[in-house]
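Fold it.
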Amino acid sequence: MTEQRHIEISELFKQLQDDLPEELKAFKGLSRVLERDGAIDRKNKDLILIALACSTRCEKCIAVHIRNAVMNGANKKEILEAAMLNVLFNGGTGIMDMHVVYQELSNHFD
């Protein structure tokens, strides 16, 4: 993920830990349970989360889930295909947001 997004996410989580520790703990617990291997393996869950993050236009979410997908074995083509699923729901707006995906991919692939 780009360094600036990484810093922003870290600062946000520190602030939430200070202000809302129970809520943050609950969120992290839910994330751990839902994102672990199950009937759908972790890599494919990461790809689904990329499509969802693109659909909600959450640049920080896109960065996190691309990083996780790469760590779990996803390749560039798989990530791009997952991100393009957003276009089925959002049309031209989805295409315009693909620049964020490419920006994040440049941190992981040549």
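The helical segments are 3-19, 21-35, 42-56, 59-71, 76-96, 98-105.
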